[in-house]
Amino acid sequence: MKAKLQNVVKVFKLIFGYGIMLVLFAGGLTFFGYLAALLIGGETATAICTWIYKSFIPVMIYASTILILFGLLTMYLAGEKALTPEKKDAQHEGEK
Q1: What is the pTM of this model?
Q2: Predicted pLDDT at 79
Q3: Which of 22, 80, 89, 94 is most buried, judging by how many CB atoms fall within 10 Å of its CB?
Q4: What digits encode the pLDDT tens for the residues 59-78?
Q5: For residue 45, what are the contacts with CB-CB under 8 A and spacing of at least 6?
């Protein structure tokens, strides 16, 4: 059972990693949309900015929220603890 769970966790981590990467890349692409709108100007620029703000960004927010919850589920299934120092690590940090 643990072997199957570890295989599931590996697949979930892969999905989480690529999904977050795509969402971050799409968020970076919005910069170019706003830059194009700035260069074009006028009513077309307003339409581009409105479409990015009302249609594209909400989809990215929902996708990133779902992927973050997916990542948290993956960490829970793997038994990982993030941002929690172990006593060994804390002692070694003080000795350096």
Answers
A1: 0.71
A2: 81
A3: 22
A4: 999 999 999 998 888 888 88
A5: 37, 38
For 2, how many CA atoms within 13 A lie in the half-sphere containing its CB? 2
Spatial separation of the C-alpha atoms in residues 78 and 10, rounded to whole Å: 9
Residue 6: count of CB within 10 angstroms of its CB: 12
Structure tokens that stand for 39 in this block? 């260069």
pLDDT tens-digit readout, 24-70:
999 999 999 999 999 999 999 999 999 999 999 999 999 999 999 98
- pLDDT of amino acid 92: 58
Residue 19 vs residues 32, 47, 60: alpha-carbon distances, Å: 21, 28, 11
Rounded to whole angstroms, how far apart are CA atoms 5 and 65? 24
d(CA 27, CA 59): 11
> How many angstroms separate the CA atoms of 5 and 1, rounded?
6
